[in-house]
Design goal:
The chain is of the alpha+beta class. Helices cover about 25% and strands about 40% of the residues. It has a single domain, classed as START domain (Alpha-D-Glucose-1,6-Bisphosphate, Chain A, domain 4, 2-Layer Sandwich). Strands 1-7-6-5-4-3-2 form a seven-stranded antiparallel sheet. Strand 4 and strand 5 form a beta hairpin. The longest helix has 18 residues. It is globular and about 45 Å long. The model has no long low-confidence stretch (mean pLDDT about 90).
Amino acid sequence: MDGLTYDEVGATAGVMPPGYHHVRARRIIGHGRADFERAADALLAGEVQRRAGARVELSKSPMRTGSRVTMRLGFGILSVRIPCLVVWAERTDTLAGFAYGTLPGHPERGEERFTLTLGPSDEVAFEIAAFSKPGRWFTRVGAPLGRLVQAWMTRRYLHAL
């Protein structure tokens, strides 16, 4: 896809590429159709990122393949602009989710996937898969801190729905 800062588009759906930091996390967030629908609406409207503390701008809502997502974390001159492109989005009766990839200016290079499933036992599961590596000078210098921030944001995302 045009403008992405990595080549392995879609790899969060399966085997993630070597040479990147990998994240996989899962949490049961509810039970039943109503919980699934409410969570799916929020997920595809960017609410996970907002509830986790990011300021979010979407080019299209609900998110779909080709949507641009621009997030900001921090305040004033200490805020970081985080531009992404949605490379996959889907919503069915039992699955909802999207994956976005990094665009130029993003502090990292890679992809992150957010998936909700409504299982046969009516459990609503929220899963996150990501691969990334530093994409800017300050994330290369501060790589250990970047991993801590990523783990912190993943926990916030998991609890956002």
